[in-house]
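Input/output pair, single chain:
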Amino acid sequence: MIGRALLDPGRLADSDGMSPFRHRNYRLFFGGQAVSLVGTWMQQVAQAWLVLELTHDPIWLGVVAAAQFLPVMVLGLFAGVAADALPKRRVLIWTQTTMMILAAILSVLVISGVVQVWMILLLAFLLGIANAVDMPVRQSFAIELVGRDEIGSAVALNSAMFNGARVIGPAVAGLTIAAFGVGPAFALNALSFLAVIVGLRMMDERELHLTNRIARPESAHAVVQNLAEGLRYVRQTQVVLLAVVVVGSVATVGMNFNVLIPAFAQEDLASGAAGYGFLMAASGVGSLLAAMRLVFGGRPRPVRLATGALLLGAASLALAVTRVFPVALGLMVLVGFGSILMAATGNTTIQLAVPDHLRGRVMSVYTTVFSASVPIGGLAMGAVASAFGVTVAIALGGALTLVIGLGALVWGRRGAFDAVERSVPAPSSGGTMPEGARTR
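Output:
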């Protein structure tokens, strides 16, 4: 049934999963993000390859990842308060403009031939500060574009768009690097931000489904109180706690692709920059398939958190022992499918459960935990790869991911999954969130 929905234009147009496209503001957001995210994935591939060329040591990939995501880990919760207090569209215009400028600076440094690792670290750190604000605001902006009734479909479509860019961006980056070097990839990313900035500026604020914003905190004590309210909600709400724990743990040990795959492509597969790009694109294909599964899959099933983790772990273990490039491509498809089946299910379920006035703060907890996995896991797995080899690091991550997936299944069989499914309605169901979903 899902396969026919994906292939039949008539079924696709009539599907509730596509209902957010009825909103002009959402179409502008989706189109701008679709272009910009291709550039973002190009930069991620190009940056990883550039660092590896400059240092010849995978541990530096973990250091750069830590520099980029440490600000998100430190500032993310405070940005959640801002997301609940400030006009989201205007904040996004500023954050996206800042990221465009940083990408342009990096492209100039590379093309002029003066780039050094410390410059990449500094720009990655500044990008992390911008991302710390952008991520919870962008995540919680979805409800203002489509309203509560269609938020589940919008989140699933956003995930599909994000992972569609994972298919195109790495492949284009790999070919661009092979033909012209890394500099043009950074320049194209800078230009891609214009699409999302123009889209945000073209939106009609009168058509936004604005929610009541909290009062702007006037003191440090007020900020702490607001943070505590969001954290308390996460701790007391079973669906949110489940998603945060599982996704955060797996992302730490099993989703360090930007750190491990460049060295794997270079050292074990001898496939070069183009091969690295296609490996990342293959994971994007799997991720896109998983996201589309969620778009047309009806009610969110929290058990997919566990099944996604199990698939990711098994595919990673198989990847660690293969030296055949086509086989590695197929396994990367499974890696991408499992990782996004897990992560997007967590995101969608949280978005459906959270009350509007807490959305920014709760999403900031989720994005902060997820982002903390990048510096922690990246540094740890980069160190393992540097000391014992990249295949050992991939295998270790796969084994730990399997353990987490099995633990999630045990948790679910004790009633957690059933309780969550009863509390979460199907996307685009037309109803509001029952009170029972707010505190379990």
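Residues 279 and 326 are 9 Å apart (CA to CA). Residues 390-423 form the longest helix (34 residues).
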